[in-house]
Amino acid sequence: MNPFLYHGPVSGPGLCDREDLLALLLEAGGRGGVRAAAGPSGHGLSSLALETAARLRAEGAAPLLLELADLADGDDLEGRLAAAPAAASGGRPLLVDDADRLVLDGEAAAASARLREAAGASGLLLFGHDAGALERLLDRGEEPHRVGPLPLPAWLPYALERFLETEVWVGNEHVEAAHRLVGGHPRHLLHLSHELWELAAGRGRRVENGMLGEAMARVEGREARVWFTTWSTLTPNQRRFLRAVARSGGEPHPFGREFLAEAGLSTASSAQRAAASLRARGLLHEVDGGLGVADPLLERWLGGG
To answer: Which of 80, 165, 221, 298: CA 20 to 30 A from 291?
Structure first.
């Protein structure tokens, strides 16, 4: 069986390089603290939330996990909190996935107060794509912990072990090359390794030169279908801004006159609104004082389109 999942959350050893952050989240959940974790789409925030909940449950904490990806408005939040068992009952930590959606309507203070009321003296753990939005839900001066690409020293031994335990031979150089191709992007690493394993398992159970390019073409083909769907949900200004960022290579001033003209946007305010929405969806992230496309393969797709 292929050891690299193509769909669904990862857990346990599959959460490479996340143990230190997990320890902080578990400590906060156990003592009634408040912490947040933020990262681009595809970096395992939902997996991190589920793993944190599972470990708290194993410790007898009985956490409550709210998933807000489809949250409509403040009334919807009230309804979900009312329908769920009281988080504070019996010292139950409250975990909120896609918590950054709570500030899209500008009601960060009210949402933060409501969550803290629901959590009571129990821990409150927030997960989401937009670090700036999560920061508004935290106490003044606190910042969310950033979840980034998987470093090669963490991924390499994990990937090698998964290949070899299923009796598929792979060299260090192939795993390293795959990591470079996707820039350590967690979801793409899993998908690329999945496709590479499939190819090798069907051809002598050995990864050979040339297979990586074929595996990458499969991943890009699958991802393109997702990107087309995402693209269709964006407003014209969001499309213009996202494509301009992809083609700029990390422009440090994405609201300047030259950038706006290149993007086809008339005002800085329209660009800022587009950027805020794209960051909330995990499509953009901060890069060296500017903005960049969070997904390296999406950036390549947009840059050539």
So the answer is: 221
φ/ψ of 16, rounded to 5, equals -60, 140
Dist CA 252 CA 181 (whole Å): 24
For residue 293, the enclosing domain spans: 234-303
Determine contact, residues 153/172, Cβ cutoff 8 Å. no
Domain boundary among 117, 146, 175: 146
Q: Which candidate, 154, 219, 230, places its Cα nearest to that of 182?
A: 219
Structure tokens at 167: 């009796």
Query: Would you state the pLDDT for residue 138?
Result: 86
- Decide if pLDDT at 88 tops 50: no
Task: Read off the CATH number of the domain in which 275 is found.
Answer: 1.10.10
Distance separating alpha carbons of residues 160 and 269, to the nearest angstrom: 48
Global pTM reads 0.85
Long-range contacts (CB closer than 8 Å, 24 or more residues apart) made by 132-136 = 132/279, 133/100, 133/102, 133/103, 133/104, 133/108, 133/279, 133/280, 134/36, 134/38, 134/99, 134/100, 135/36, 136/103, 136/108, 136/109, 136/112
pLDDT confidence band for 248 (50 / 70 / 90): confident
